[in-house]
Design a protein that fits this description.
131 residues; cardiolipin synthase (CMP-forming); mainly alpha; 89% helix; single chain
Length: 131
């Protein structure tokens, strides 16, 4: 009986140690990907703004662009603060910025003629070149 009790305590000790290790890995994953999560949220805000513009909900589109701007500020600050910069994060941030500040903003301008369309395309290409 004492052996069984000792075995149970050892199993319990291993369980708690593995829980701590699992918790540490989870926290490290969150630390490394917090900025990426904010970039994805920025991308979602930009795509939602595009959809709002296409459905002529320009007021909502403007608010989503503001949310995207704030998320863009936050993702850079979080990445620097947590020292969690990565190649994937940089590309994800650029893609989110292009979507939010390039495509969504150009659609919000509501180009209606050939000249308006060409200017909107020039604006999108300038944003692309900048990133």
């Amino acid at each position: 009986l004492p052996r069984r009790v000792a075995g149970i305590f050892q199993s319990t000790k291993k369980l708690f140690l593995s829980e701590r290790a699992g918790r540490a890995r989870t926290l490290e994953f969150i630390r490394k990907n917090a900025a990426n999560g904010l970039s994805v949220a920025n991308l979602v805000a930009g795509l939602s703004s595009v959809l709002c513009s296409l459905n002529r909900h320009h007021h909502h589109s403007c608010w989503l662009l503001l949310v995207g701007f704030l998320l863009d500020l936050a993702d850079g600050a979080v990445a620097r603060r947590l020292d969690a910069c990565s190649a994937l994060g940089a590309k994800l941030d650029d893609f989110a910025d292009f979507t939010t500040f390039g495509l969504a903003t150009a659609l919000l301008l509501q180009p209606q003629g050939v000249l308006d369309g060409l200017l909107a395309i020039a604006y999108v290409m300038a944003v692309f070149a900048r990133l």
